[in-house]
Every structure is written in C-alpha cells, then in structure tokens.
Amino acid sequence: MKIKNISLLPLLVSAVILLSTSCRFEEDEYFDKSASLRVTSTNEELKSLLVKQSSDANNGWVIQYFVAGTDEADFEGFNLFGRFYDNGKVLLASDHRYLRNGNANKYTEATSFFQITPEEGTLLSFPVWNDVLSVFADPVDPSSAPKTLAGDGTGMNGDYNLVLHSMKNDTIVFRGQRHQAEARFVKCDRSWQDYLAAVSDLKQNISNTYLTSYYES
C-alpha cells in the first residue's frame, strides 16, 4: 500500500504544476487585457472631452503651449486655440510672433489632423504640418534662424506629440514626448478674439515683464 501511495506522488505534483501554470496564464492574459482596455477607455474619454468642448455651443480650448527652455526664460508660454472634431480634423489658431508667411503677430487659423494613440501612454499627435503649431517643432536651419531661436538646427524644441499627464473635466495637461515641455488645455470661456483682446489689455496693465500671457483667465 505504501508503494502505491509513493507512485501516485509524481502524478499529483504534475497535476498541481499544470493547474498552477494554467491559472497563471489565464491571470496574466486577464490583466494584459484589462490594461489594454484601460488605455482604450482613456483614449476614448480624451477624444470625447476634446470634441465636446469644440462643439458650436462651446468655445473650444485655450492651449497654453510651452517649449523646452521655458523654465530658463528662453521662451515664454504661447496661447494657441483649438477645436477638435470627431472626423480627426483640428482647427488651431493663434497670433504668436513665430507664424510664417507674413502672419507673425496676426490672428491666423490653420486646419490639419490629430490622432490619439496608445504610445508611451495616451498620446495626442499632430502628424501633419500645421502653420500654428508645427513651427515650434521645426528644426530651423541655423544659418537662417532668428537670434531668438536655437541656433543648432533644433528650432525651439517644441513637440507635436503630446503625452497625456492628467485629465480633468476643464483642464488637460500634456508633456511633450521628446522635450518634456508642458502643454495645458483649458476650456475657453469666450471667443478666441475676445480672449486675445483680454490678454493684450492685461499685458498693457501689468508692469512685471516676467508675467506672460498664459496667466490670463
């Protein structure tokens, strides 16, 4: 009888190992699937929030856009504006001084495309050229770059791929994928032209030159 019990032991051990392996595989598969679902859910939530605020009944987004070097006061923040549409199109606008083709400091709108993808976390990407945004990430030729731009062919070290950092109902914070500068999306509470006019008035009434336009509210 003792011999029979011993002979059954390897079979019991094998069964336990097989059961353990099977459970671990199913558990890993479950958690992988859950992580994937979580990313998909975040992407959908982000797009829904961007699009909802971009409807005709709302005023879109103020994008408080920074480039690498802002912390060292190399560049201030820039006010951009955006409307995001369900078909993947985006309308961006600004009057910043780096607009090209004679549009510097003039209110300009430009339409292009956006994507939301699960790369290094949720990623908001502007994959094609947009006159309002792309100039910040353009590697300007050092021989022709203005003195205010980086003279090493890197331009202003801006980003057109933005990694989601935090998301609330009225504010979404991103970090540039490559240069880590912040881009803060805030719900706009007025027309873009009115917002820019308020910023201009604020600048004229403030003597502190270190207070830049992105503090306007």
Characterization of the model:
It is a single chain. The chain is 30% helix and 24% strand. Strands 4-3-2-1-9-8-7-6-5 form a 9-stranded antiparallel β-sheet, covered by helices on one side. A hairpin with a 4-residue loop joins β2 and β3. The protein is built from 2 helices and 9 strands; from the N terminus they run αβββββββββα. The protein is of the alpha+beta class and 217 residues long. It is globular and about 50 Å long.
- Write out the strand line-up for the largest beta sheet, numbering strands in chain order: 4-3-2-1-9-8-7-6-5
Helix content: 25-40%
Measure the end-to-end span: 86 Å
Oligomer: single chain
Number of helices: 2
Shape: globular
Tell me, rounded to a whole number, the average pLDDT.
79
Please tell me how large the radius of gyration is.
25 Å
Topology as a string of helices (H) and strands (E) = HEEEEEEEEEH
Short description:
With 217 residues, this protein is of the alpha+beta class.
How are the SSEs placed, and which strands pair?
Layout: H1 2-53, E1 61-65, E2 78-84, E3 89-94, E4 108-113, E5 115-118, E6 122-125, E7 161-167, E8 171-176, E9 182-187, H2 192-205
Name some characteristics of this structure.
about 220 residues; alpha+beta; nine-stranded antiparallel β-sheet; 2 helices; globular; disordered N terminus
